[in-house]
Amino acid sequence: MPFTTINGAHITYEIIEPPKGNGGPALSLSPGGRNPMADMRDLGTLMAAAGYRVLLHDRRNCGASDVGFDARRSEYELWADDLQALLRHLGMLPAIVGGSSSGARLALTFALRHRQSVRALLLIRVTGGQFAVDRLVEKYYDSNARAAAAGGMAAVCETEHFAEVIRNRPENRALLMRMKPADFIACMNAWRAPFLAGSDLPLIGTTAADLRSLHVPASVIPGNDLTHPRQRGATVAPLIPDCELNHVTDIERDVDVTPADEWGQHYPAMARIFTDFLTRKLSPVP
Prior knowledge:
The protein is an alpha/beta fold. The protein has two domains: 3-129 and 202-281, Rossmann fold (3-Layer(aba) Sandwich), CATH 3.40.50.1820; 134-194, no CATH class. It is built from eleven helices and eight strands. It has helices at 41-49, 75-89, 102-113, 130-157, 160-168, 171-177, 181-196, 208-212, 230-236, 260-264, 267-281, and strands spanning 3-6, 9-16, 26-30, 53-57, 95-100, 118-124, 218-221, 243-245. A hairpin with a 2-residue loop joins strand 1 and strand 2. The two termini are 29 Å apart. The relative contact order is 0.13. The model has no long low-confidence stretch (mean pLDDT 95).
């Protein structure tokens, strides 16, 4: 798998070329959670077949990329700055930027921090509300901080998520063990702050003013579970000046998260929605 050094970190990536080779519009897709880029490969392959040059990458602290922590920026700002540098390195700017759940938060943060670098937004399973805030703060930050407090960085290495990134890239164990537990805990506390502040916002980490300030076309496909409530799409879409809202299912599930295989069955419909949207909204790139 190709990789490069971005902002001092080893970042693994993949480009899915359109059938006619290079030259299609650049599109970056990021998965939800802290999941590896492979989770977006099926949708990326469908978009490549429609003529887009699709970038997938493992974000920092995900998949086979390096772990890395910076309490001066939110985790999403870190990811957005890495993606900007990676797209520039690959000659893929400006780009269409999209993602699911945490990948959608990355796309929105990217659009707000790097406005000249984004052509359109594809936002899947947008996240908001108190249930999502409470669940995700615990999953991503509080549980890891407790592990560090109880057993130091060795205990962090043994958590389910960080054990996986160590399996994917063994060098990550040394990077984690090099950190002082107090510094790791401070970063987790800094990163949790935007989540805790987000329970009353339209989306976690994104204010109504942020959404109104976006002046690129956006397509929103809401989720259908407690973490990604269907209603979030109806709340968010009117706030973005040029936004289209589409649903791929009428079923709402009373579960924390809809299983990945169940959601993945909607990828062909999503690809059709996004392809039609982008064809209508974007002029060809010379």
